[in-house]
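Much of our argument rests on the idea that a fold can be written as discrete symbols. The record that follows shows the chain in one-letter code together with its fold in token form.
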Amino acid sequence: VQLQESGPGLVKPSQTLSLTCTVSNDSITSKYTVWNWIRQPPGKGLEWMGGISYSGSTYYSPSLQSRTSISRDNAKNTMYLQMNSLKPEDTALYYCKLSELPGSNFWGRGTQVTVSA
């Protein structure tokens, strides 16, 4: 399976971020899969943001839930992340990750997002 993130790169504070994760060689609706968004700010650890299961259920980090929305397009085999009210501290490398039972994980290479005026 291959995951490819894409996004705008640079976003201004207070704007909305939209990221895309395009999936190849697997289906976003394959059973027992959860498709996640994870980010890593510069000099900090990984932060799980949320995910969407093969059945379409969504899960969010409590700290980001009010600003974050995860969705998918089954026909395009693509997952999306939207985050509003961006702040400079949202600057990070954003990854999509597949978690597949019984315990496999696959990562994209990540896409850099910088929040700056």
In short: The chain has no helices and eleven strands. The first strand starts at residue 2 and ends at 6. The radius of gyration is 13 Å. The CA atoms of residues 43 and 115 lie 16 Å apart.
